[in-house]
Amino acid sequence: MKTRCTPAALAFLAAAGLTFAEQVPTTKLYKDLADRNRYPAAEGLTSAQADAKCNIMEQLVAAFPDAAGKPIAVKFYWSRPSAEAAPQMKFVISGIPENLTDLSNRANTVFQRATEFVVASPIYWTFEQTAVTADDAAGKITVTGAPKDAGAQIKGLTAEVDGATMQVKTMTLDLGQAKIGFDMTYEDLGGKWGLDNYTISFPQYKQVLNFEYAQVESFWLPSKLTLELQGPDGKPLEPTSIYEFSNWQVNKEIPAGVF
């Protein structure tokens, strides 16, 4: 049920320094988020592929003499052929000699940690995994999610949205055994907001991501993604990984056998 308040009651609350929270229909919330933010999956992207490289990968290859001069290459693929399908995404590494299994394993680990962040999914897909409600109090939208059933992975969700910009500033997920916090800042990408800095706080460490973008047809996709693993005190736990993407192709056929 949508909560309403008369103009006289609103005036009284304002005079008393109080704010009145009005429930926001989730359909409106999701549409407003899609209209104001860069979510390629909500803008008609069905597939994407790019050449990729990473500074850590280059260091790994240099540590294996048998890999010297080999045509090692990395491609990133993303696919969502229909609105009903969940996105598939994958880095594919080619050219590593078969006998260098250690290099292959390490290289896959380097790229796997970045896979889910390359093409941003609409944040309301996470909201939809819960029984969600949203309330607007003086332009601050608070999103609250309860578990849909006893076996739900997400036990609770809270998020704060700036009603003026429709930027989701923070989100917290309660997974039962741990809570994960998300903090986000944005940049203007052709009139819509794209993630600039994305910090994910786990109990023992943080993932800090920064993005740079290139426009590819009507889409904005990352040209550079920087990922740093930090301790709770903000100090780096390992060298920063820098992923670079080039030669993006969108809504083209993905080679058979990738997924």
Average pLDDT level: 93
Helix content: 10-25%
Q: Major sheet: order of its strands?
A: 1-5-6-7-8-9-10-11-12-13-2-3-4
| Rg calculated over all Cα atoms | 21 Å
> Largest sheet at a glance?
13 strands, antiparallel
The structural class is alpha+beta
* Low-confidence runs of at least 5 consecutive residues: none
Number of DSSP-assigned strands = 13
Number of distinct helices = 5
CA(first)-CA(last) distance: 44 Å
Shape: globular
Strand content: 35-45%
Please trace the helix and strand order, writing H or E for each element.
Answer: HEHEHEEHHEEEEEEEEE
Question: How would you characterize the overall build of this protein?
Answer:
This protein has 259 residues and is α+β, with helices and mostly antiparallel strands. The protein contains five helices and 13 strands. It has helices at 7-15, 26-36, 55-62, 101-112, 124-127; strands at 21-23, 47-54, 73-79, 88-94, 131-137, 140-146, 156-162, 167-174, 179-189, 192-201, 206-216, 219-230, 241-250. A 13-stranded antiparallel β-sheet has the order 1-5-6-7-8-9-10-11-12-13-2-3-4. A hairpin with a 4-residue loop joins strand 7 (156-162) and strand 8 (167-174). The chain is globular.
